[in-house]
Amino acid sequence: MGIHYEEYTRASIKAEPLQMWVGKWRIDYLAFAHPGNAHKPPLLVVGGAFQNFTSYKYCVERIYEDFPVILVDLPSLGNNTQIAPDLSMEDLADLLYEFSCRSGLSTVHLMGLSLGSAIASTFAYKYPDATGKLIVAGIVTRPRKSWRMLVDESKRVLGEGRMDEFSQAVVLYLVNYNRIKETGITPTARKLFYRQMKKLSENEQERYVINGSRLLSVEGLLGYPECDTLVTTGEFDSFTLPWENASFAEKCPNAQFVLIKGADHLPQLEKREVSLDLFSTFLRGESIENVEGTRYFRKGESKNLDRRRAERLIPCNSRGYVTSESRIGDQYRFNKPVKVVDINFFGCLIKLDDPGFSMADHARDCTLYLENPELKLDLLVFDYDDQGYLRCLFKHGNIALAEKFTELLKDNQYFLSPKNDGKVHRIYG
Description:
The protein has 429 residues and is of the alpha/beta class. It is 30% helix and 23% strand.
């Protein structure tokens, strides 16, 4: 069968999606083409966990000028309600390939955003003869341990039915609150995101867990595509860090890496016009080195990107203590004095006064207490050593408290920028 394109209108993108069944799996899609471009290879767009088709309307409107556009929701992704816990990223890429074959598409361009980036890149690697160009935004080669712990923690909180905490935590993980001024993500947008997550249906909650498990199961990518590839993300992306995206680009022989200035994890929404200029310029085969609002990296240049998500600060009062409610045998609690070596919005490096204490049973339920300023910060301990150093992430689960913490970090009564950066212990969380 051949693909049937519709001419794009603002109303048509809100229409019920078409469906294709591949065995027992359902693929939802909408296909748009201008009559003058319908003969060209289309752009297949694979989005993230809960992005619906209407969120791509501006992307469709821009790309539609040059290429057909097909929006695809694979099982458990986007608005596809089919529960598919057994489908891996590779399985989803295979389904996408089967969709393109059954649609009579010998060659397709691919765009993978956030979670969809791993699926699109796997397609391009496994099926090079069927791939034209590839765009990925928000991709990592191998998820870092601290990132895995955050995803796993969000699944745990959701599983315990703590919907308000879960919803606020997801917003705080995906939106870089340390750079709100630069990204310009409005309070209204953040509030809408929070409400969307808090109102997840049972089906959506189940799909969140499935997609979280898919992410956690990824130890690394199958391989690196050889097609013309654009790798991008926002310069302030704190979820899939710029250097992680750059690492993927460095491993692809024909990839170009571009940061979108002033953007966070979803640049196509936060800096829409810049993102669309970049995408359409790349797809047309033109140079992307000087697209306004972006920073272009030649091969090797991205290796100098800072791995820190924010500057590490020195607390004026570095003394505090860490407690845990974990049970070990008959003992339910410990209380250990610590020194805070450095700190920022995302986490801290602390040192136990009494090294040699094992953190293996306490990694997920520690709390750091500080005085002057008075702070209580829940921790995920993702690394520790015999000398007593603990590398920690903060489990932000309350937006109001996180905003207050952000302001406190700017107050030099309490926190100072290190005079000699070389003397500061860094953690790459």
